[in-house]
Amino acid sequence: MKKQATIRNFFVLIFFMAFIGLSAQEQNNQTYRIIDNGSVLNVQPYLDALNACNMKYHRLKNTRTTIVFESGLKVELFSATELQTAGLNINPNDYPDSFPASRVEPLFQLGANNFILEKHTVQGKHH
Asked: For the chain, which has fewer Cβ within 10 Å, the N-terminal or C-terminal residue?
């Protein structure tokens, strides 16, 4: 259990470091949209957090993807091609056509100060 928590914390740290190095590009109803509020009554903190980050590594070239928060809030990320068509300065060829079949989607959580945390599940052998 302790090893799994350490691995999860490592991935969260890597995720934050990636956010620091990337410029924010997310904009509600232009690069993503909320499709289900789940149990969230006030979505503004989620909007603030999403608008302050870059979801590049969860976006596909031609297909919309959905990320899910622990609260049940669901966000649909528009495809890279849609973003380019809308005038954003991105190259759709920098995005994958699909995710690997082995990919386990992380569960997202709204953290302190409107930071988005990713919770990854590590699969495989544990010693």
From this structure: C
